[in-house]
Amino acid sequence: MDFSVDWLHAMEDAMKLQIDKLMKALNVPSSSDISTTTLNKLNKAPIAGFLVDMVKILEQNLDLCKSAAATFDKLKSEQIELQKQLISVQSDQMAAVKQSVKAEMKSWADVARKTVSQNNAMTTKVVKEAVKAVSQEEEKSKNLIIYGVEEGEDLEADVDLNEKVMNDVVKSICGLTIIDDGLAPKVKA
């Protein structure tokens, strides 16, 4: 006998029917009123028939319970197997998500690295320009200012300026001497 809910209900109905028959034979209103005293009022024949019927029902119930236990064990094993499959699928999905996240993080890291290197290149360029501007300013601050002569004007073309006068002026103001080596005037401390 294979377990089924229908068989379970059929066994329940059969037991209720036998109990109802016994209550009718004993003339009691409920099964809780059945006692040894009330059973002693009956002859052996009705009690024997009732016991035979109840033993048959109990044997069927035992078979049904064994079948139910086997069915429950089978369902439990299937449930455990399904849970293992679910865990496996979830693990695979988690691994795929982990791999996707890792790949995305790598691509974001590459983008960030490129951006940082471009910013570093721009920063290096800006720093170089700033250093160049500062060095030009520093170089200009060392130049001699002669009023009436514009910056960048060729001093050698101006014949009216006397080199000795210039040397004297620079020496008296700065304590420096201008040396002419034929290329360009240089300042000597």
Provide a quick synopsis of the model.
It contains four helices and two strands, in the order ααααββ.
Task: Describe the model.
The protein has 189 residues and is mainly alpha-helical. The protein contains four helices and two strands, in the order H-H-H-H-E-E. A two-stranded antiparallel ribbon has the order 1-2. The chain is rod-shaped. The chain starts with a helix and ends with a strand.
Give helix % range.
Answer: over 70%
Strands in their spatial order, largest beta sheet = 1-2
End-to-end CA span: 122 Å
* General form: rod-shaped
Number of strands: 2
Mean pLDDT level? 76
Q: Structural class, judged by helices and strands?
A: mainly alpha
Uncertain runs are none
List the helices and strands and how they pair.
Layout (H helix, E strand, L loop, with lengths): L4 H22 L9 H5 L3 H98 L21 H12 L2 E4 L4 E4 L1
Antiparallel strand pairs: 1-2
Helix pairs in contact: 1-3
Features:
189 residues
